[in-house]
Amino acid sequence: MSAEPEFLLACVRRFLHPHGPLPGSARLDWDALARLAAKHAVVPLLYLAAREAAALYGNLALRSSSDLDLLIRPRDLVRVRHLLPSLGFRLSSTLHWPCESACFRARAPAQLC
Hints:
The chain is built from 4 helices and no strands. By secondary structure, it is an all-alpha fold. The longest helix has 11 residues, at about 5-15.
């Protein structure tokens, strides 16, 4: 296994075992690691596991954010989902459910789908 997937797997394992070891980071391609984490939607787990490593960010203020959390009424969900693109927002992550309100499914009642 190449260095980036091995490092990412160790980072994700830390979710269950917070004191688990991380492989060395000297030979990592950080851009490739970040792309791999984004592809698998585990960027926050990568950050949490590697935050002691100054090579990743060095300063929390340098961490980029790519999502937006909104509190909306359930009845407004679909309308807001269609409104956001007209305001310049776009969905950049992969949806794993084939329904209109898929990106909200984890926190929304099942009847919204």
